[in-house]
Amino acid sequence: MVSFDEASSIISLIDIPLKPENISLQAALNRVSSENILSKYDYPEADNSAMDGYALSWNAVSKIKEKNVKLEIDENVAYAGAGLKKPARRDVAVRIMTGGYMPEKFDTVVPIEDAVVYGKYLSVTNSVKPYKNVRKKGEDIKKGDVILSKNTKLTPETIALLVSCNVKKIKVFEKIPVSIISTGNEILNFNKKRRYGKIYNSNGILAENFLAANGCALVENVICKDNLTDIGNTLTSAVKTSKIIITSAGASFGDKDFTGKALESAGFKIKFRQAAIKPAKPFSFGLINKIPVFILPGNPVAFYICLAVFVKPFINKHIKINNPVKIINAKSSFKYTKTNKRREFIPAYTFERNGCNYSEIYKKSGPAMISSLGYMNSIVSIPENVSQIYPDELLDIYLI
To answer: Whole-angstrom Cα distance, residue 122 to residue 22?
Structure first.
């Protein structure tokens, strides 16, 4: 048995090869950039108006000695994303829309709500602010600027940025192909009719969605009976097509745990067997032909804890994502006695109160308490050498 830190360290030493791929921006949501993206253009690409109003040349106006300057209004209008059809004289005011390109050497916009207009003339008084309401060329992004850094997760916001800069394709890390193998005669596919003594494959669905949200592509999500041949054939197939294999249940390597026997027959090289954590003590890890195999316990909370604290950091390491597992400090809003020397993980709900983060653990404890999955937004981590937690103690919290 290894400690939590030892298990994490052993897993982190394993590398799996990932290739970048070029994809359409429309398919880029939640993918991770594999290179820096540079802007090919200035943004804005030209000086333009920030307001509907009247554009003028303040330099020209300032040379006129009168206190109240009247500028003839040029009917030639600059619309959003466009300039004038013909050049404007510098001693006139030009009607301009928000986003309209500024006429050459024009530098000021009088907002329409502030404009004093007499017929065909704009009155320019001391209330007009020079060089205002103009968005300068390249003031936001200059050509050659990095608009998206390598290892950034593509979100609706970052995709909108790339679209604005005329990026149509982007290089991203490939999704890690993963196979999920749930074992047990009692496991039932979710689309089957409920039968006495059977349980639905919640772990398989949990892993499938969790991994999809964290940069993986599902190769297969299979239920195997407690049958050495069935599990062995599925493992053989998974090794050929996957870069990560996750198994659920059969992690104890007992007489009836066919997963362990099938793994050994497939050439499994154990890295560690069991970890000093609670829940999920049976969690084990190793390789088949350099493919990492995470052998997770079948109890749903224990299964999820392993996904959150072991599998997710391993994935993040390989796609080098800039938003890794988030561990924060929060104050305990509970009292708890720990009766073991293992690292303990407890489903929790973390919230903010009076400017501080607090965590409350789930009222029902145990690795099979699946109701906690509907309650938790975090996981409390209690160190090995701690036996008692009192209210207002600072703890490490995994945000999920």
So the answer is: 53
